[in-house]
Specification:
5-stranded mixed sheet; about 120 residues; elongated; alpha+beta
Length: about 120
């Protein structure tokens, strides 16, 4: 059975509250789960102790048994020191598009033209 450590959403509309759960990867997001490991409340301040509550021993246990954490849960585990920080490559996100690069080159050419005339 392929297991995942992921977030299950709770709370009302525009007031999210998540449970950190271990579930079968084929189950729906808020569906049946095997074990609840903790909670995550994104509405609290980032330095608040109650923002993320996680049972690290059980998380280690499930990781040792092959459970794969989702991206967000993996970040929680990295911050807690349970898991080594993995490299994330989103190289295209920071690059400007074709039109923006063309505008920048055009602007640079215009700025260079008056400097060359002097």
């Amino acid at each position: 059975m392929a297991t995942k450590i992921r977030l299950a959403r709770g709370g009302s509309k525009k007031r999210p509250h998540y449970a950190i759960v271990v579930s079968d990867s084929r189950m729906p997001r808020d569906g049946r789960f095997l074990e609840k490991l903790g909670t995550y409340n994104p509405l609290l301040a980032k330095d608040s102790e109650d923002r993320i509550k996680l049972d690290l021993d059980r998380a280690k246990h499930w990781l040792d048994h092959g459970a794969q954490p989702t991206d967000r849960v993996a970040r929680f585990l990295e911050a807690a020191g349970v898991r080594e920080k993995s490299t994330r490559a989103n190289l295209k996100k920071g690059e400007p598009g074709k039109k923006a690069t063309a505008r920048a080159a055009e602007k640079a050419a215009k700025a260079a033209a008056p400097a060359d005339a002097e």
